[in-house]
Structures are given as structure tokens and as C-alpha cells.
Amino acid sequence: MKFDMGSTTLSDLGKGTEGASTDLGTLIRQLIAAADPLEGKFNGAGKAAFDTFKLHADEITAALNGSLQSILGGQSGMDTAFGSGDQEQESNAHQNMSGANFDAARFSGR
Questions:
Q1: Of all helices (H) and strands (E), which one includes residue 76?
Q2: DSSP 8-state class, residue 41
Q3: What is the pTM of this model?
Q4: Do residues 86 and 5 lie in contact, with contact meaning Cβ atoms separated by under 8 Å?
Q5: Of 4, 5, 7, 63, which shows the fewest CB atoms inside 10 Å?
Q6: Residue 7 carries which DSSP code?
Q7: CB 7 within 8 A of CB 86
Q8: How far is Cα 47 from Cα 43, in angstroms, rounded to an integer?
Q9: Other residues' Cβ atoms within 10 Å of the Cβ of residue 10
Q10: Quick one: residue 48, left, alpha or beta (phi over 0 = left, psi -120 to 50 = alpha)?
Q11: How far apart are the first and last CA of the chain?
């Protein structure tokens, strides 16, 4: 199995996630505003669920944003780990190459 990822993939993903966090609260408020004309036009469990959603919109937004922040923290940690691993691999390769005897591996007819 081959795993190939660019050096900026996780940081780019983190930037996208950070932007989504800002958009999420706006989208929830737009959803509530868009549903306002329906208020009073339905009853029962649907009305109760929507009223509860409206009442707790700030809590819901905060909870979702908290979850996104946790995802963002995980992405940042993975980015750091991949970067460190890449640097360590390069360092190990250079260290091993400096101790290698490349002349002994030549197959020339002297």
C-alpha cells in the first residue's frame, strides 16, 4: 500500500476546517431565520422540536464549534507528527548515507 500526501495537505485541511467553524454558526442562524415564516403553521411534536432547537441554537452552535475545534487540534497534531517524521526520515537517510561505503559497491573492472 502506498500513502502519498503533500507536505501542506494537513495544514490546508486545517484552514478549511477553521473556516467551517465560522460558517457553522451563521448557517444555524440562517436556518432559524428561514424557518421563521413557518412558525405557527405547524403543531405537535414538530413544533416542539423546532422550538427547542431555536431555544438552544447558541448551545448547539457552541457544541458543534467545540467539536470542530477538537478536530482542528487533531489535524494540527497530525500535521506536526507528519512533519517531524518527514524530517527524521531525512536525517536518518543522511546519517546512514554518510557511513556507507559507496566505492565498495562499484562493479568496475579494474
A1: helix 57-98
A2: S
A3: 0.55
A4: no
A5: 4
A6: T
A7: yes
A8: 5
A9: 20
A10: alpha
A11: 42
One-letter identity of residue 41: K
Phi/psi of residue 56, nearest 5 degrees: -105, 20
C-alpha triplet 5, 72, 28: angle, nearest 5°? 125
CATH entry, 14-89, from 1.10.10, 1.10.287, 1.20.120, 1.25.40: 1.10.287
Q: Which residues contact 67 (CB under 8 A, 6 or more apart)?
A: none
- Residue whose cell numbers read 526520515: 89
